Amino acid sequence: MANIKELSVEEKLRALYDLQLIDSRIDEIRNVRGELPLEVEDLEDEVAGLSTRLDKLKSDLESIEEQIKEKKAAIVDHTASIKKYTEQQKNVRNNREFNSLTKEVEFQELEIQLAEKHIKEMKASIEFKKDTIAQSQERLDAKSNHLGHKKNELDAIMSETQKEETFLAEKSAEYQEQIEERLLAAYNRIRTSVRNGLAVVSIERGASAGSFFTIPPQTQMEIAARKKIITDEHSGRILVDSLLAEEEREKMEQLFAKI
User: Fold this and answer.
1) What confidence score (pLDDT) does residue 88 get?
2) Model confidence over 138-162: pLDDT tens digits?
3) Which of 84, 163, 183, 196 keeps 20 to 30 A from 118, CA to CA?
4) Within this chain, do residues 40 and 150 fall inside the same structural domain, yes or no?
5) Is the separation of the CB atoms in 20 and 240 below 8 Å?
6) Model pTM greater than 0.70?
7) Domain with 69 in it: what CATH number?
């Protein structure tokens, strides 16, 4: 900002008030969107989380179904072993061999019982998983639908305001270039410290706009003289006289009308 032309106090006040009018218009546009962008972002995160959880549940279900297939295949193998050992018992030479084969048959039978028990438990787990998946899918569908509506709502607002906001942002940058760093820093500091973002306000009915504190007549005369930058002692806002404010509002309205 080293090449900024030296402005008179009045020119500085006009530039500051113009910048305030432009920034306030941008604030109005963004207020229309309100919390909608954040709401859309939160919904996107929630939908992504639900999708991940649903994928995990489906993966778990597939894993359980695969385990059941393995258990059923094991039962087939155990049954074949029982048949084999039972056949071998018919050709044993002594009781020791017979008892040994009997133990093998009993072991295979226990393995079948254990596998069947596991299959029963896993089938119950599958039913529970399927219920959970159905509920999760229903919730995901509802959230996705809600997200779609909110996105459409945001897109509609953005399509209506994006052109104007872009134009105003460019104008705001242009006006900031005209204002010296120290003054611009003060303007930005005040804007961020007050609730409505008004750093520059006019005198209305003997008080600064939006304030109930009366400004002494002598101070009002100094403000109207436009010879120095004067701030409100209560709010810290930069003050301009009502005539200057009216002139700049009319100028800005003509600018806004071109959008």
Assistant:
1) 93
2) 999 999 999 999 999 999 888 888 8
3) 84
4) yes
5) no
6) no
7) 1.10.287.1490
